[in-house]
Amino acid sequence: MMETLEEAELCFPQINTSCKKHARPQSESMLMYIFMSFISLLTIVLNMLVIISISHFRQLHTPTNLLLLSLAVSDFLVGLTVMPFQIFLHEPCWFLGDLVCVLYYFLSFITVCASVVNMVLISVDRYVAICDPLHYSTSITQKRVRIYVLLCWIYSFYSFMFLSDNVKQPGRYNSCYGKCVSNIIGALDIVLGFINPVSTIVILYLRVFVVAVSQARAMRSHITAVKLQSSVTVTVKKSELKAARTLGVVVAVFLMCYCPYYCVSLSGSDIILGSSTNFIAFLVFFNSCLNPVIYGLFYPWFRKCVKLIVTLEILSHSSYEAHILQ
C-alpha cells in the first residue's frame, strides 16, 4: 500500500528516477493556472492591438512608433509562446520532453532579449529627440530605424552562446526524470542581457531627465534658448517631453520587472533555471503585459485606435487615413 502511494506521487510512476509531484491543493493549482492563462491571453490581446494600430494607421508610421511596434511584437511573442510554457513549468512534472524544454528556454531568451534591446533603442530615440531636436529628423529616419530593429532581432539570438550545452545534450541538467531546467552562463547573461543595456538606458534617461526639467522650467518662465523660436516648435517640444515622460514610465516598470531576476543571477556565475525561479521569471514575462497597459493610460491615440478596432470601423474604406493624433 505504501509503495502504491509513493508511486502515485511520481510524475512517471513507471520510472524510478521520476520527479515527484507537488502536494499542492487542487484549488490552489487551479487558481494559479487560471491567473497565468489570463495574463497570457491579456498579453496577446493587448499587444496585438498595439501591432494592428501602428501597422494600420498611416499617421502612426513614425520612427518612435516603429520602435514601439517592434517592442509590441516581442511582447506578443512572449504571451503567445513563452507564457503558456511557463504554465506547464509551474509544476515539477514536465510532460513535453527535453527538446521542447530547450525550445522554451531558447524562445524566452530571444523574446526577452529583443524587449531589452528595443528599450535601448527607444531610449536612444528619446535622447536624440530631447537633447538634439534640430538633428532628430535627419538622424532618426524610418530607414535607419528599420535597420536598427533588424539588428536588434539578430542580436537577440546571442542566447545560443550560453544555451549551447543544453542544445547538444537536452536534459543533461535535470536532477530527475520529467524536469525542465536549463543551465546558463550567468556572467555572460548578466553582462550582455542586463548590465550593458540597462546602464545605457539609465544614462540616457538621466540625461533626458535633466534636459526635460530645464526645458520645463524655461517654458514655465516664458524663457527660450532661441528668442526667434516659433510657437509651433514649442508645441513640438511639449509633445516630445510628454512622450519622454511616458516612455520613462515604461522604462521604470521594465527595470522593476527585470531587476529581481538579475539580482538573483548575481549570486553565482552559473544559474539553473527551473521551478525554483518561476516567480521571478514570470515577473520578467509580466512586463510584456504591462507595456500596452501603460500605452492605454498615457497615449490618447492608442485608446482611439482600440475604439476603432473594437467597433470594426477599421474595416471601413480608407480607415488607414484616419486622423488618430487629433
Q: What can you tell me about this protein's structure?
A:
This protein has 326 residues and is mostly helical. It has a single domain (29-321), classed as Rhodopsin 7-helix transmembrane proteins (Rhopdopsin 7-helix transmembrane proteins). Helices cover 70% and strands 2% of the residues. It contains eleven helices and two strands, in the order H-H-H-H-H-H-H-E-H-H-E-H-H. The protein has helices spanning 2-8, 26-56, 63-89, 98-131, 136-139, 142-155, 160-168, 186-220, 231-265, 278-298, 300-310, and strands at 182-185, 270-273. The protein has a two-stranded antiparallel ribbon with strand order 1-2. Helix 3 runs antiparallel to helix 10. The longest helix is centred in the middle third of the chain and has 35 residues, at 186-220. The termini are far apart. Mean pLDDT is 76; it is low at 1-7, 223-236 and 269-276. Residues 46-295 form the G-protein coupled receptors family 1 profile domain. Keywords: Cell membrane, G-protein coupled receptor, Membrane, Receptor, Transducer, Transmembrane, Transmembrane helix. It is found in: Cell membrane. The chain crosses the membrane at residues 30-54, 66-90, 102-124, 145-164, 184-210, 247-267, 279-302. It is a multi-pass membrane protein.
